[in-house]
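Input structure tokens:
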């Protein structure tokens, strides 16, 4: 009980040293949250470029500006390092490393294992370890707990362990760390209590659940919910296209229902680090229980086919204008996976780009947030902002509806537009203007 009391006191007095392992889209805003909360924070990342950048006051995450990084350094409570020996100084160790999928769509938890390896090599007695990376149900109990319990250390007594999913929505100005409730599940009641205390210091609402596994599953439910509903509305978009019904008008009408309906939009781009990947963490685990998670697989199939649907529409639109794809110049607007952000991880805009190039189309892109992309090892730069040049393209395809785009100029200069995002309001479908 002694170690529990010690840590409890340190957290309540804001004297606990908060460690964040993995300083990306999730870790960096968390660092900011704890600095604002008055804690001393040590951030560790194995990418030394990132460490160097943060130590020179430069951010690489849109939601945390360079100004903010500099302000945090001024508090003298922020330490950024690539040296894992800093783990020895941490009272709370929060793991925010990536959890991608392997090519086979199986979970790749190697980053968690590597971070865990760095922790178990060091002194974490009396510390609270929290996993925030999205992962399959059971990871904390089946993987982290046995490793951390080596050397006869007892959870709830010698160290503490919990899972708390991250819900950050990059680019969301309305909901950030403070006003997004945090779900927390510890291995023992002591672990849950301490983890709840840590987050209560910086978050308005903490929702406690009975185990890390429930917390892990709740995060996956949230993302499966989005993936399945986007899959549903994507399928409806394909049907509406065939029936010549405007799916956007249908959605706008259904959205007026004040209860029992939640609006989702179709699109070519279901990207980001979460929605295209996380559901497969659950379906993989389900298979180990001889259970086939059909909704997840079906939504994955429908959403994964959207880039191919977009290509077939591009063929059709060019054909209507007496053009062939191999002799056309096409400009893609938007490489980021969603509007107004600079994140292009898992962005199917890249798939659309590759599919067009493979079909012989001369393809360029313009995205004010993404200066360059890499296709088959080749660096391709975004064209410069010059709307009058749009008239040089046979087709402009809007893949991401950034607010920064000047849609009046796009309308003025484009010969033909394929607007997969309903970004241009008030235009009727025609030979020169087509929607998803
Ligand atoms: N990005 C989001 O919107 C979001 C939202 C909710 C949850 N998540 C989840 O949070 C986790 C992290 O995602 P992210 O978007 O921050 O990823 P990211 O790639 O932006 O950041 C991860 C960071 O971890 C570092 N790293 C990798 N291995 C490490 C190691 N062994 N030790 C120390 N640092 C290491 C990387 O260099 C990188 O800076 C993932 O599980 C993701 O699914 C992400």
């Amino acid at each position: 009980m002694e170690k529990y009391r010690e840590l409890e006191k340190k957290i309540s007095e804001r004297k606990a040293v908060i460690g964040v392992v993995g300083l990306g889209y999730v870790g960096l805003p968390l660092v900011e949250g704890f600095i604002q909360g008055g804690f001393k924070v040590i951030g560790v990342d194995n990418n030394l470029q990132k460490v160097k950048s943060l130590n020179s006051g430069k951010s690489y995450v849109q939601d945390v500006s360079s100004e903010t990084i500099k302000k945090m350094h001024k508090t003298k409570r922020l330490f950024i390092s690539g040296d894992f020996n800093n783990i020895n100084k941490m009272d709370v160790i929060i793991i925010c490393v990536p959890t991608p999928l392997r090519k086979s769509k199986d979970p790749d938890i190697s980053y968690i294992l590597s971070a865990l390896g760095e922790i178990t090599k060091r002194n974490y007695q009396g510390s609270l370890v929290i996993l925030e990376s999205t992962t399959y149900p059971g990871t904390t109990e089946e993987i982290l707990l046995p490793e951390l319990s080596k050397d006869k250390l007892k959870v709830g007594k010698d160290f503490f362990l919990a899972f708390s999913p991250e819900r950050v929505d990059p680019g969301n100005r309305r909901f950030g760390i403070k006003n997004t409730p945090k779900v927390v599940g510890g291995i023992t009641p002591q672990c849950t209590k301490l983890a709840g205390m840590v987050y209560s210091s910086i978050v308005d609402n903490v929702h406690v659940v009975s185990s890390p596994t429930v917390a892990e599953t709740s995060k996956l439910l949230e993302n499966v919910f989005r993936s399945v509903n986007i899959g549903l509305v994507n399928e409806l978009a394909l049907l509406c296209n065939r029936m010549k019904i405007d799916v956007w008008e249908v959605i706008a009408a259904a959205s007026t229902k004040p209860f029992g309906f939640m609006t989702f939009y179709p699109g070519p781009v279901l990207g980001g680090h979460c929605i295209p990947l996380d559901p497969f963490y659950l379906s993989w685990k389900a298979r180990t229980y001889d259970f086939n998670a059909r909704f997840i697989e079906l939504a994955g199939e429908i959403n994964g086919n959207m880039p191919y649907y977009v290509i077939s529409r591009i063929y059709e639109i060019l054909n209507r204008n007496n053009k062939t794809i191999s002799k056309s110049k096409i400009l893609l607007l938007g490489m980021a996976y969603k509007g107004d952000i600079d994140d292009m991880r898992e962005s199917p805009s890249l798939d659309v780009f590759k599919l067009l190039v493979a079909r012989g189309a001369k393809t360029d892109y313009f995205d004010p947030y993404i200066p360059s992309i890499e296709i088959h090892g080749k660096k391709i730069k975004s064209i410069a902002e010059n709307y009058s040049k749009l008239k040089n393209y046979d087709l402009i395809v809007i893949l991401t509806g950034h607010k920064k785009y000047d849609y009046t100029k796009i309308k003025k200069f484009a010969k033909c537009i394929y607007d997969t995002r309903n970004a241009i309001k008030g235009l009727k479908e025609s030979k020169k203007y087509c929607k998803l």
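DSSP finds 13 helices and 15 strands in the chain. The mean pLDDT is 95.
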